[in-house]
């Protein structure tokens, strides 16, 4: 033991200037994507379990994307909340279904200022709430679902979505959608594969947000939360199938999977900070138990540090505003 250590890591923490130079990870607004919900009927509606997040209308979403563009974020991910649902999720493939209409409205509103992305999954549109169609025994039918995803891909691409977010966790979904897009001439429409999507309790508030009617669970298609190796395998399969971007979801409880995928991937790796991750911080902040602004920043920074090039977060616009102010510089 020496009273005078020769090695002093604190030198690089001594004042704001040296801390700024020593900072290893920074967030930029362009690395943030805002998920948005658009409902088919009625006025804008607050989402009880996600304070500060609303279901937009085709009209109110325009203001939200203007603000997002002004803050300089990278893009938006659109989810539709239809007023009618059925067994095959037919609203998902109707050109005037809510998600496809919202895509056109948002595209007209923001032009190239934001990358317009869409959730390609059936759960918002099915009356049983599953991400696919069911067979006669009530099980999610992988290959029949792929046919529905192919149709969704065509309508979404034609509506102007630049990046299709394949979140259904069906085997072969990336290959099927890529083949269909290319066959129809949509060679430049990109695929964001929700590769490592876990069967998570943290999606709870989202199910409120889209008024999901799911009875049961998604464990026959989403990953077991304990499975790290399998998350990496799913990402590698999606890269081989032609994904342009792979994603890990949720983010905060899966940083090891994210780091594994980031180390193995030669394409961009994104992460989705999901509804429950949002609501936990909001709830604690409302109680005065944590510093909201610092906790929001730290939660997203940690996801970026673990390997995500881009983070989908419900705080995207607000966080971008803080970053633009230099609040964490
Ligand atoms: C499926 C989908 C879900 C989320 C995004 N896409 C829900 C699910 O798999 O149950 C969850 C997002 C969130 O919790 O913020 N369409």
From TrEMBL:
Pathway the protein acts in: Porphyrin-containing compound metabolism; protoporphyrin-IX biosynthesis; coproporphyrinogen-III from 5-aminolevulinate: step 1/4
Keyword check for Isomerase: no
Keyword Lyase: yes
EC number annotated for this UniProt entry: 4.2.1.24
Reactions this protein catalyses: 2 5-aminolevulinate = porphobilinogen + 2 H2O + H(+)
Domain of life assignment: Bacteria
SUPFAM superfamilies linked to this entry: Aldolase
Keywords on record: Heme biosynthesis, Lyase, Porphyrin biosynthesis
TM segment ranges: none
Broad class of enzyme this protein falls into: lyase
Function: Catalyzes an early step in the biosynthesis of tetrapyrroles. Binds two molecules of 5-aminolevulinate per subunit, each at a distinct site, and catalyzes their condensation to form porphobilinogen.
Quaternary structure and partners: Homooctamer.
Recorded family membership: Belongs to the ALAD family.
Descriptive protein name: Delta-aminolevulinic acid dehydratase
Organism: Microterricola pindariensis
Lineage, opening ranks: Bacteria, Bacillati, Actinomycetota, Actinomycetes, Micrococcales
């Amino acid at each position: 033991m020496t009273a005078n250590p020769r090695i002093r890591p604190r030198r690089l923490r001594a004042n704001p200037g040296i801390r700024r130079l020593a900072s290893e990870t920074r967030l930029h607004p362009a690395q943030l994507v805002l998920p948005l919900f658009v409902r088919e009927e009625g006025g804008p509606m607050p989402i009880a379990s996600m304070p500060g997040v609303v279901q937009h209308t085709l009209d109110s979403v325009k203001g939200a994307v203007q603000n997002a563009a002004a803050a300089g974020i990278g893009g938006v991910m659109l989810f539709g909340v239809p007023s009618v649902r059925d067994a095959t999720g037919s609203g998902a493939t109707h050109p005037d279904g809510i998600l496809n209409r919202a895509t056109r409205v948002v595209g007209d509103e923001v032009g190239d200022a934001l990358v317009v992305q869409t959730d390609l999954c059936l759960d918002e549109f099915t009356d049983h709430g599953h991400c696919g169609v069911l067979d006669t025994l009530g099980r999610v039918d992988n290959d029949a679902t792929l046919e529905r995803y192919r149709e969704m891909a065509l309508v979404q691409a034609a509506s102007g979505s630049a990046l299709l977010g394949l979140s259904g966790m069906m085997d072969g979904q990336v290959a099927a959608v890529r083949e269909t897009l290319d066959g129809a001439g949509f060679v430049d429409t990109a695929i964001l594969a929700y590769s490592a999507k876990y069967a998570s309790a943290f999606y709870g508030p989202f199910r409120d947000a889209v008024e999901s009617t799911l009875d049961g669970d998604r464990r026959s298609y989403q990953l077991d939360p304990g499975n790290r190796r399998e998350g990496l395998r799913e990402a590698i399969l999606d890269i081989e199938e032609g994904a342009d971007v792979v994603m890990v979801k949720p983010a905060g409880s899966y940083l090891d999977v994210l780091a594994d995928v980031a180390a193995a991937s030669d394409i961009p790796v994104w992460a989705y900070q999901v509804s429950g991750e949002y609501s936990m911080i909001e709830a604690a902040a409302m109680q005065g138990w944590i510093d909201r602004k610092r906790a929001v920043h730290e939660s997203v920074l940690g996801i970026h540090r673990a390997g995500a090039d881009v983070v989908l977060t419900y705080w995207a616009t607000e966080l971008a505003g803080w970053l633009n102010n230099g609040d964490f510089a």
